[in-house]
Structures are given as C-alpha cells and as structure tokens.
Design a protein that fits this description.
There is one protein chain. The protein has about 140 residues and is mostly helical. The chain is about 60% helix and about 0% strand. Helix 1 crosses helix 2 and helix 3 packs antiparallel against helix 4. The longest helix is centred in the middle third of the chain and has 33 residues.
C-alpha cells in the first residue's frame, strides 16, 4: 500500500514541483503546522491536499502506540550483538567450507558439531524473541 503522502498521486513522481510563496499570519501558520503534524504530513503535502479538496485523515491518538524507548534501545543493542554473532558464525562456516574443499583437517579452534547446533538453536530462539518483542512494541504493549 502506498504511503499516505503519495496515495492520491497518479502523476509522475519526477514531475517538477513549482515553489510558491505565501504571506500568512504566524498564528494561522501555527494552526496549519499543527494540523499537518496531527495528520502526519508535511506542510506542503497538507496544503496540497487541502487545496485539492482531498481527504486528510487525522489518526485517532488512541490508535498510536506509545513507544517505550528503553525497550527500543535494548532491542537495538540485542540486534547488534546478534549481528556480531552471525558474522562470527559466517567466518567459522567459511573456514569449515575451505577446509572441506581443500580436504584438510578442521582447525582446532572450531567447536564440535554439537556445539554449533546448540548455538544455532539458541540463535533461532533469540531471533524469535526479538521478533516477538518488535511485534509487542508495534502493538503498543
């Protein structure tokens, strides 16, 4: 589904826009900006829609979930840690594949197969937990 900012447009996106200049009272501009922000639109988009007589939807505040920034920060830190773990696992896999292709013995620092499977299971469980947390944040919980 297109974003609310481009939903009504059927024109070519590369179509050149023409700047316009208005003299407007500061209090009126403040009201326009407040309404544009409530509709989650830029000032230009809000005025364009209003001028063209298009519907401007202002979402119900109860529908907008409150963001818990502590959860968000924790989720981002956890994501970075898992990215680092994933990079390490990829490096191990590369070494294993190289050794296999060259018919060489496995390097000593490589953990046994059981350990690798345990790491894989823990990583999948953790990634599911991250996904569940993201969904919880999106739902406003």
């Amino acid at each position: 589904m297109p974003s609310p900012k481009t939903r009504y447009r059927s024109r070519n996106i590369k179509e050149k826009r023409t700047p316009i200049y208005l003299k407007i009272l500061k209090k009126d501009l403040a009201i326009i900006d407040e309404k544009a922000q409530a509709a989650r639109l830029s000032r230009t988009e809000f005025l364009t829609r209003a001028g063209l007589g298009l519907k401007i939807e202002i979402p119900n505040q109860s529908q907008i979930p409150e963001i818990n920034w502590q959860y968000y920060q924790l989720l981002e830190e956890t994501k970075q840690e898992f990215n680092a773990i994933g990079n390490n696992l990829n490096q191990i896999a590369r070494v294993l594949n190289d050794a296999k292709l060259k018919h060489q013995a496995l390097p000593r620092f490589i953990p046994n197969t059981q350990s690798i499977r345990q790491i894989e299971c823990l990583t999948k469980d953790a990634m599911k937990l991250i996904q569940d947390t993201q969904n919880l944040i999106k739902a406003g919980g």
